[in-house]
Amino acid sequence: MHASSVQTLSAKASCAVRPAPVYASRLRARRGAFVIRAALAQRAEYIWADGLEGDLSKGAVFNEMRSKTKVIPEPITSMNPKDFPDWSFDGSSTGQAEGNNSDCILNPVAIYPDPIRGGDNVLVMCDVLYPDSSPHITNTRALLVKLLTPDVVAEKPMFGFEQEYTMLNKTGQVFGWPAGGYPAPQGPFYCGVGSESVYGRNLAEAHMDACMKAGLLISGINAEVMPGQWEFQIGPVGAPDVGDEVMIARWLLHRLGEQFGIVCTFNPKPVQGDWNGTGAHTNFSTESMRKPGGMKAIDEAIERLSKTHAEHISQYGTGNELRLTGKHETCDMNTFRSGVADRGASIRIPLPVQLKGYGYLEDRRPAANVDPYTVARLLIKTTFGKEQSLP
């Protein structure tokens, strides 16, 4: 071959391979950009309820909270639920749809900082909608929102939700109880201190910290009467926020339980016998109740509540009949009774409220597994004399 031809072929070969390093460099740059974008992406945990808390078909141990993670490439930092996209899920796998038409819509209604993942990551509380955007039958929040008419909003109803729960190990035994046996009779455990009296404080404290970091209006925690039983309080907060915050707090409790190997149940009577049940006492007030002379409005509300007792009881939690027996700081579920500083009443008026002549009332009837949106809705419905039919 002629020398000039060899030089020409060599030059072509050189040109053919020359772009390879350039291509590799660009590929690395693209991968680097992807890594940077992925690192900056936001994780949004979409949370909803399947409406089966305490349902016998699911079992008392299993909770109703569901969630899944959406990765959002460009973080949404407004904390405005309207800025977050709707999503969907397979309702046939949660008991909320049939398999031949299984899509349910997740509609963001409240956004909170994610205290577990940190950064720009968020928790997204969602309404569940049908594909036509109407509220799903399990969407009790929508029923509450309908009652928030101008006259109700003007009275600024406020709620304090006392959520009791029981910690279990993975075999279903109360956390901290001796294997195959029982601890000492209840009495020394309520608000106790010391490993002989308190079981599960590490989870209770971690949960409180997470709620605070998420911006929830958590007002306290305490060990309860039965060992292994705890309580956290959300509020005072208005509606529908009380339901949103209780649901997020419940989700955080279950999520953190994964890390501690502890199952938390809202079963109203997790242990039969001479042990306290598990409730969700709800403190309620309107602006008229909170003003000097508000005892008149409190008494009027109690009178109205006495006339709708059966309606409230029917929606105040599954298995509540095992708890509301007239024993263990409860009133029999078939009886309505109010009283000052009486923890055996249906409605308790705290002693400081009675002495001041204004404040709030405490509804002691809700079970721990009650829907917080439903409690708020019924208290508003009865107190304001609203009419509302269920779907």
TrEMBL record:
Annotated ranges, domain GS beta-grasp: 42-133
GO cellular component labels: cytoplasm
Classification via Pfam families: Gln-synt_C (PF00120), Gln-synt_N (PF03951)
SUPFAM superfamilies xref list: Glutamine synthetase, N-terminal domain, Glutamine synthetase/guanido kinase
Domain of life: Eukaryota
Ranges for domain GS catalytic: 140-391
Catalyses which reaction(s): L-glutamate + NH4(+) + ATP = L-glutamine + ADP + phosphate + H(+)
One function term, GO molecular function aspect: ATP binding
Keyword vocabulary terms for this entry: ATP-binding, Glutamine amidotransferase, Ligase, Nucleotide-binding
Gene Ontology terms: biological process: glutamine biosynthetic process
Known EC number: 6.3.1.2
InterPro entries: Gln_synt_N, Gln_synt_N_sf, Gln_synth/guanido_kin_cat_dom, Gln_synth_cat_dom, Gln_synth_gly_rich_site, Gln_synth_N_conserv_site, Glutamine_Synthetase
PANTHER family given in the database record: GLUTAMINE SYNTHETASE, GLUTAMINE SYNTHETASE 2 CYTOPLASMIC
UniProt record similarity statement: Belongs to the glutamine synthetase family.
Name of this chain's protein: Glutamine synthetase
